[in-house]
Write a sequence for this structure.
């Protein structure tokens, strides 16, 4: 059954929500009176399509349908989730929420992207107050997992379950408070930043460098308190607090005392920002940011930590059970090429073809019971020989798949033959891979367990009628 | 000529400084009265040795010598750089700085790791005030590039040049201010965090999640202002400020109003932190943090952005001119295995052997003039066939090198044979690699330029007397 999301307000945030739903298979209706909305949304979608799918190591996402309307009634009437992202003015939000509630179903979830308003404020005068809650996202919404949920317990629990299906990390805020949690920190930093610029201490670029070369890197993987727990060292968290406690009475910030946003200060920030980033257009900056985020989030994914652990959980939850006729080559990989796999030639680096084939070998291992439990028990397969032929280029954001044939399954030897294809069935590369069963204790070869051997035998026997792969003469290789 | 750094105060910060200098070839003298100093420093050094060297793609670092003393006079008398990292109490700092100045040379640089004191405060009563400056690092000092430098212009410029040699990103703060720049933000966030816990809005873990799943990821690669520039979109930075300007008068923070650090609040933070992170020891958390940082910084390195751009600049500045007798196999790679190249088997993944050989091929291309200018002009080599044999395992933090022989250089065909060795000359893998010269416009093969062809011919001719590689019989492979 397909789900429908109605996105009310199609700016950068609304567009990000649309992309998040659409690329996870939801049908999306966007309601925005702006004549430019369709163009703006399509730019956000293009950014999302080149970055989000590559965060998964298993799936090729099936997009839902996308429609536009200028009527809230049309947008919300069949929607399961309605997301309000209109300007941050309470009277506009009240008006839009009332219009939504007079046309939506009783079971629909109505989230607001508000940065600062509390649910009790949004709910003022509403027909069904408990249906309305805060679902505060972070830009770019299609990549960053955090969503702050604030509202009635029953509603936010339902909303959390939906957002987890979209690969997000919903954080239920238990007590409503102005600006929720994250934006309180952002507001504090913003105020301090304005003072530093006004007082001529630092430029926008110097401030950004002070963040991204130092604590910004720490906070991308552990937050404030886990970082300080480490700083406390063996003496512990209490020691840390005691050590830094006295600073609280020192003049280290001047935060509540707000600088006036004079024309001069605004001008000075804008011109410093031009100096810092003006060589890139906003579109270019967005793509640089997205490529950086994908690369870092994939790095954390390999460590199974922070935002990377969220990605792994999502991959596991949605891992497709590839339907297999084991008498035919097995579909071992279906995925999208991430930006961090490409090189200076503008295509996927040769070593990443090797990684795809390595992953394909892992899938066969897993199918025959040489899975993570088997590895924990001290046995595995090591690759000892790989012969890869490169037939065609492939690029970031392209969907590929791999078909694998078991050529030999004899004692400790397992020989696989992989073929990698582009979505249009064009052959991209082949790999003849020899794996050897090993003991992880001795790091030497040994016979596999009986259960694994039996499954391998069955697989090998089922495929014994398949023609053996032949080398394609070089003269027929596409690139040559 | 070797340089000497004197580290006064051997805690986590002093230890991090020691590692940074030592692993960059400086001789280091550590002065700390603590009987435990040597053990504590060795733990920091172990962490540094398994993470810092792998940030470079070219170098195997040569460590300097390390000695301990309990005399400041002994430590500083021959030091080029003296780094004070004693407790954050002004009278202790004055005492230590006076002792340092009565024994160091006039040309020595004296940096203080202080988080909050201004240079004018540190310099009070000093014999040579301008010699003393703030060099404020961020934990872990051996990985994070940021250093805030505050002091006399001439001194900080000299200090900046030294720190850049250590691969760091020194930020000269032009006007002195309590807590410099970064710690003003950290203090603001810390105060806000204490309130959220005291008011029961969020736990330490919820706060950390609100950071690391959202804006923390943004700040690891762009800071505050570049992020907001993007948020402003096509309408620009001024539009953004106008949009969020009004919030400054809203109750989004309660910062200057400092919560009292009662026993109850301290206890509550400590027990929430135990709940969140108590399943890991501090040592484990340090290594998780370092592995995350290395993986993310390497991800940014591939994007040549932020902290990754600093790493690339450092690699280029220090790229060793590998001395080559071209009649022998060429040394194409000397490097350390990074943690993000290992897999669930606890060793370097098969695809990363492929990456090392891909990099080795790039070095040969560069040697014969098929370098980045050549690629910009529209020509390159693509790999079309790789045959890798895996002879032995290798692990994170191990030093390896590759020797490369040119087997064929004929028209558009270039065939290389690479052998990868562990530092102890043990053979790890071989690769027979066929590259084809291509036009990047047509994406089809074509003849290389005359200059490249001439250099390739010279290389191939010089190596023509070398024995051709023979396949080692499988029976002699180490792992089997």
């Amino acid at each position: 059954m397909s789900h429908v999301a109605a996105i009310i307000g199609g700016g950068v945030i609304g567009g990000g929500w649309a992309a998040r739903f659409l690329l996870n298979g939801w049908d999306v209706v966007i309601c925005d009176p702006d004549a430019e909305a369709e163009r703006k949304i399509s730019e956000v979608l293009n950014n999302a399509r080149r970055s989000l799918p590559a965060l998964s190591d298993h799936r090729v996402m099936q997009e839902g349908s996308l429609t536009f309307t200028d009527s809230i009634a049309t947008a919300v009437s069949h929607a399961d989730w309605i997301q309000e992202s209109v300007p941050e003015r309470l009277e506009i939000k009240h008006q839009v929420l009332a219009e939504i509630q007079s046309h939506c179903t009783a079971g629909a979830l109505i989230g607001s992207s508000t940065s600062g308003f509390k649910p009790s404020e949004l709910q003022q005068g509403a027909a069904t107050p408990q249906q309305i809650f805060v679902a505060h996202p972070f830009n770019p919404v299609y990549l960053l997992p955090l969503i702050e949920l604030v509202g009635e317990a029953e509603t936010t629990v339902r909303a959390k379950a939906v957002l987890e299906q979209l690969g997000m990390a919903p954080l239920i805020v238990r007590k409503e408070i102005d600006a929720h949690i994250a934006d309180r920190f952002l507001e504090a930093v913003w105020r301090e930043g304005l003072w530093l610029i006004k007082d001529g201490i630092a430029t926008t670029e110097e401030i950004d460098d002070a963040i991204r070369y130092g604590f910004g890197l720490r906070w991308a993987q552990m937050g404030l308190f886990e970082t300080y727990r480490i700083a406390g060292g063996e003496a512990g968290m209490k020691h840390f607090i005691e050590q830094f406690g006295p600073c609280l009475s020192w003049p280290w910030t001047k935060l509540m005392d707000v600088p006036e946003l004079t024309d001069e200060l605004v001008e000075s920030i804008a011109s410093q920002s031009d100096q810092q980033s003006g060589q890139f257009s906003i579109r270019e900056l967005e793509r640089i940011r997205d490529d950086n985020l994908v690369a870092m989030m994939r790095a954390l994914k390999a460590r199974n930590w922070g935002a990377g652990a969220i990605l792994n959980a999502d991959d596991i939850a949605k891992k497709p059970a590839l339907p297999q006729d084991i008498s035919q080559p097995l579909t071992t990989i279906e995925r999208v090429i991430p930006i961090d796999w490409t090189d200076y030639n503008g295509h996927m680096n040769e070593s990443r073809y090797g990684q795809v084939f390595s992953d394909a070998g892992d899938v066969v291992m897993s199918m025959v019971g040489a899975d993570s439990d088997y590895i924990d028990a001290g046995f595995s397969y090591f690759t000892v020989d790989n012969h890869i032929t490169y037939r065609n280029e492939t690029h970031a954001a392209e969907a590929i798949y791999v078909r694998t044939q078991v050529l030999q399954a004899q004692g400790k030897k397992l020989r696989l033959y992989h073929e990698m294809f582009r979505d249009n069935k064009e052959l991209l590369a082949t790999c003849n891979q020899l794996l050897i069963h090993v003991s992880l204790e001795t790091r030497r070869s040994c016979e596999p367990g009986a259960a694994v051997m039996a499954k391998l035998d069955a697989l090998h026997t089922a495929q014994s009628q398949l023609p053996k792969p032949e080398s394609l003469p070089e003269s027929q290789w596409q690139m040559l």
About this structure: Chain B touches chain A through 154 residues (CB under 8 Å). The mean pLDDT of chain B is 90. Residues 189 and 255 of chain B are 9 Å apart (CA to CA).
